[in-house]
Design goal:
By secondary structure, this protein is mainly alpha-helical. It is built from 4 helices and 3 strands, in the order ααβββαα. Strands 1-2-3 form a 3-stranded antiparallel sheet, with no helix packed on it. A hairpin with a 2-residue loop joins strand 1 (51-53) and strand 2 (56-59).
């Protein structure tokens, strides 16, 4: 078995930094769907595009580095955010659908760009607390 090489990412290492980022996310004034995706991030610590069922985010083993399925229980707040997203996307296949025709999933680059606009250079996983 080949062990994946560890890669280190930028991280917020103190509570003040996390608080500042959460306040920045709360004040985001871009697209409503992007705002909801940003608000969901600290609740689930996972990437977009995974399957959601019964208040549990199920991530297939094929998408995980260790090839094991992963389940993320969802808080009431996370479920509320997802219901808000569903109200915007309605009948589309993806909870966080793209704004473009054909409704592909929202790109991780959408979130990355929003985080950069908020002054966060960390990319998709801004809450990696070492």
């Amino acid at each position: 078995m080949v062990v994946p090489k560890a890669t280190h990412h930028a991280a917020i290492l103190d509570a003040n930094g996390v608080g500042a980022l959460l306040r920045a996310i709360d004040g985001y004034e871009g697209q409503p769907m992007t705002q909801l995706a940003l608000k969901l991030t600290p609740h689930v610590f996972v990437r977009p595009g995974e399957l959601l069922e019964a208040s549990v985010w199920r991530i297939a083993a094929s998408k995980m580095k260790m090839c094991q399925p992963h389940m993320v229980p969802l808080s009431r707040q996370a479920v509320d955010i997802l219901r808000g997203a569903q109200a915007l996307t309605g009948r589309h296949q993806y909870v966080f659908a793209s704004l473009y025709p054909g409704t592909p999933p929202m790109s991780e680059n959408t979130i990355n760009a929003a985080l950069r606009r908020l002054g966060c250079p960390l990319g998709w996983a801004p809450f990696r607390l070492l």
